[in-house]
Amino acid sequence: MKKLIPVLLLALLGTACDDLQGTLSVQSPLTLKTKKETIVLQPGAVSAKLDLDEGDRELEIKVKNAAGKEKEAKLKIPAGMAIPKFSGTLDLKAAQTGQAFDLKGAIDTDVDEGPSIDTTESCSYTREVVRYRWVEVKDPRTGKIRRHRESYTEYETVYGTREVRYHNKHTTVTGKAEFIEPANGSLLATFNGSRSWSETIYEYQGRCW
Fold first, then answer.
1. Separation of alpha carbons 100 and 174, rounded Å
2. How far apart are the first and last CA of the chain?
3. Count of domains in the chain?
4. What DSSP string describes the chain?
5. Does residue 80 sit within a domain?
6. What range does the domain containing 178 cover?
7. Residue 105: is it exposed, middle or buried by C-beta count within 10 angstroms (0-12/13-18/19+)?
8. Structural domain includes residue 72
9. What dihedral do alpha carbons 71, 77, 78, 81 form, nearest 10°?
10. 88, CA 20 to 30 Å: which among 25, 110, 119, 144?
């Protein structure tokens, strides 16, 4: 059995933008099984990321030691079990995941939307412009040079302003998880984390002039 001391990062990875970033607090040694070995996370608080991956129906746990060497363990998610992305709970048993612990998790989402704002903003668009030029062409029969005018198309960017109405939207997703000893129900570790982002929601966009 190999021990990693100290653990710098624990990540249950799927899509990076879905990561819940927070802290993993280990109370008792937490055992993880990888394809090649068994590793143990020792008690203490470490930076952590947690993500529920719907596509692969598994949780990938990656740990880095002080030397930066990465280790990976996976938790299988049973077919048919819902994977909450923004709200809900998850209850995984050791027999289902292939790991030595049960995992219980919960996720919740809070959305804050601001008032509508009417204003103008800079804008741009691309338009086609037909232009003309004189070209010289040598007549292959007579050898004479003839000049004629031909058209061609260019694309140019036009800058202007437009009227808009929008509001700001801020979303915060919070999650927590408990790693539990199956034999006696004792708590091995807890995770608390969150992710948040802001968006500008346009309700109206006028013509660019």
1. 26
2. 69
3. 1
4. -EEESS--EEEE-SSGGG-EEEEEEESS-EEEE-SS-EEEEPSEEEEEEE--BTTTTEEEEEEE-TT--EEEEEEE--TT----SSSEEEEE-HHHHSSSSEEEEEEEEEEEE---EEEEEEEEEEEEEEEEEEEEEE-TTT--EEEEEEEEEEEEEEEEEEEEEEEEEEEEEEEEEEEE-TTT--EEEEEEEEEEEEEEEEEEE----
5. yes
6. 2-111+172-196
7. buried
8. yes
9. 180
10. 25
- pLDDT tens for each residue of 65-90: 555 667 777 888 888 888 887 899 98
Q: Report residue 143 as tokens.
A: 């050898």
169-186 b/e (C-beta count within 10 Å ≥ 16 → b): eeeebbbbbebbbeeeee
Distance from C-alpha of 127 to C-alpha of 167, rounded to nearest angstrom: 30
Per-residue pLDDT tens over the stretch 22-44: 888 889 998 888 888 888 888 98
Single-letter amino acid code for the residue at 156: E
Q: Is residue 166 part of a domain?
A: no
Instruction: Tell me how crowded residue 8 is: count the other CB atoms within 10 A of its CB.
Output: 13
Instruction: Output the six-digit token pair for 159.
Output: 């800058």
Tell me, yes or no, whether 131 lies in a domain: no
Return the amino acid letter for 34: T
CA distance linking residue 53 with residue 24, whole number of Å: 19
**Which residue is associated with the tokens 């040694």?**
29
